[in-house]
Every structure is written in C-alpha cells, then in structure tokens.
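Q: I have 329 residues here and want to know how they pack in 3D. Can you give me a structure?
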Amino acid sequence: MALMAPWVALVLVQATVYSSVRQAGQQFAAICAGALLASAAQAIMDDNTGALVLSLPVLMLVANWSRFGGQGIYAATTAVFVLASGTAVSAAAVGHRVGQAALGAVIGVAVNALVLPPIHLRDVRENLAALAREAGDLLHSVAADLRETQWDAQSAAGWTSDAARLERRLEALYSARSWSRESLRLTSGRLRRLHRAPTVVPPEDEDRRWSRVTGNLGALTRTLAVAADEHRTPAPPEGPVLDLYARLLRLIGDACHTEAGRWAGERPGADPATATEETMEELHRRLQEGLREHAGQGAARTAVLGTLLLQAENLWAEIVPEPRESAEQ
C-alpha cells in the first residue's frame, strides 16, 4: 500500500493552511475508518468481493456523518484501495496502512504550511476596486440618462439591474475577505514575504462602508424606478433641478472611480478634492433651493426630489472624504 501515502498527501493540499489542518484530522479519521472496516470485512468474508459488498454500505453511512464534514467519502475510497491491493489481512498490514495514511497527512499539511502556502490578499483589493468602479459606472449611467431627460421605466430597470450586480460584487468581496482571513491564520510572516501579493489587507471598515454605499445606490435606483412608473403617484422632477442632480451624481461617480484607482494601486493624478468639494457644495445649495421651488408645484414631485437628494447626500457622506480626513491621509 505504498500508494496510500502520496494519495493522502495530494488530497490534503487544500486551498489554505487552516483548511489543511482542519481537514487533515477529518480526513485522517475517515481514512482510518475505511482501512479498519475494510480489513475487518476482509477478515470476516475471506474474499475481496464479499468484503466490498459487506463494507461499502456501512462506509456510505459513515461518509454522511457530520463529524467528517466533506471528507467522509474518503472512507469508502480507502476501503476500495485496501481491498484492491490484495494484501492479506493482518494486524501488521492494518498498522502499515494507517501509518501510510498518517505519513501522507503530515507531508500534505507540511507542504502547505512550511513550503509555499497560498495567501489570498490581492482578492480583497481587487473586489474593493471593482465594487468602487462599478458603483461609479452606475452613477455615471444614471447621470447621463437624467441629463438627456429621456429616461423611462426601461432605463430605470437597467439601473436596478446594475444595482443588483453591485450586490453580487459585494458578496464576492465578503467571500474574498473570508479567504484572506483564513489564509493568514497559520502562515508565518517569513513565508508571507515570499509572495508578491500585498501583505497589508484593506481594513474591514471598508467592507462595511461599501456595503452602505451599495445599499444607498439600490435605494436610489428603486426611487427612480418608482418615479418612472406611469401607474404610480410619485412624479419625477423636471427642469434645471434634474440637470443639477445629474451633475451631483456624476461628481460622486468620479469620486468612486478615484477610490477604485487607489485600491488598484494606480498613481493618483492632480488632487481635485478641494474643487470637487466646492462644486458639490454649490450643487447641493442650488438643489435645496430647487426643492423649495418644487414645494409649490405639488407634493408628489417634492417627495421624489427630497428622497433623491437625501440618498445623494448619503452617498456623498460615504464616498467623498471630509477635507480633514483627506489631509490626514
């Protein structure tokens, strides 16, 4: 059964060091159970075919035992290996099989932990950059359609679909964060330096911040979808105030793209933060004046414009840094 050790080593080289250690125990237990049950069935039946018939039903039940996690299937696989080897059953043979499995488990975990463990750090940055970039693309798309004043329910449906895509990107970010956290658990700092991946993971506060941004964008697109529906009471704003709102969204989208470039490691150009802040303050002031003007044109348009302005302010607060924070960075 010299094949047992390399086979166990190969299946134990998992995606992260932590997974290897955790799964090594489950897999080793399943392999030992398979070897022992196959040897016992071989001793009872004195025939490999009969031993296979006797042991496999039991091993399939063992494979579904929750204590083995996803490694229970290796119990049945090991039984097939043991019976196919044709080795006569004895205490020495059983001990040899278990020893081979233990040796393979040690080698598999050692390769992952001490030679070159995979570290998933870049995925977090890539997903953050992609999330910021796609958020900026959505804001630019909404702004362009609003400025054309030709947007309708079909346009709003497209925005809603893009917002749903952002939710999926956010889930990918959470998954990448989980992988990066797990891959660093048992990996030494010396081995981390062997990788070209960045050794600093973006803080988890960024995940929460972009989660709020994604939620605000979803709310904004839903509001626009309701306003575009001819069968609903809320009416979309019209005239110069709509153009002002589109300009505000475009500036926030520009800030998203700047954030995406930062996470992607791109060199920042000239810092337009002060000019952007002043422009957005001016747009906000004029939108507030427009809101007061709309108040005299009916409650429906005023409610929609007020809701849209509040959602833009929420996005602004999350995406555009305060001047003091920018100076500190």
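Q: Anything worth noting?
A: The chain has two domains: 4-115, 122-328. The CA atoms of residues 131 and 169 lie 6 Å apart.
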